[in-house]
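User: Structure please.
Assistant: Input sequence and predicted structure:
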Amino acid sequence: MLGRALSIMLLGALMSLSVHASTPTVAAATPLEVVREFNAALSQRQLAAALALLAPGAVNFQLQSAHGFTGAASRPEALTSDLAMHWKSIKPILYSANRRYERTVADATVHADGHLAIVWARLKTLSEPPQGARTLLVFRETYLLRKQDGRWQIIGIANSRLTR
């Protein structure tokens, strides 16, 4: 009986460790730390970890297309889209086309007021295909974050990337 109780307690402890290990570390994070963690997760090809930092219904603002092939010339691209779906859609192409893909927040300005924050970041992306030259892009991304239940979550992103 004691052995079974000990086994159950050990199993419970292991389960709590595995749940804690997969939970993003945003509870005490600042808006900038959330933005850095989001980009690090994308660089490490950990899409689930990146998406865990998004609020439900997070928005991608498409002020201009980052790729010339995304929309038909006769139909303008929508101004907004679901941010999680955006990353889920481009993940297979982005990761299969690049042996290495790194997103680095080079510098950032943060403004927070209550439960709302804006992070204006200068990003560097390094793309290294299996063959050919690597590409370094530098552009700005603006992140809108909301603090809910003590956690900062990304609710929107807009960027200044030029069309390739």
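Residues 125 and 137 are 5 Å apart (CA to CA).
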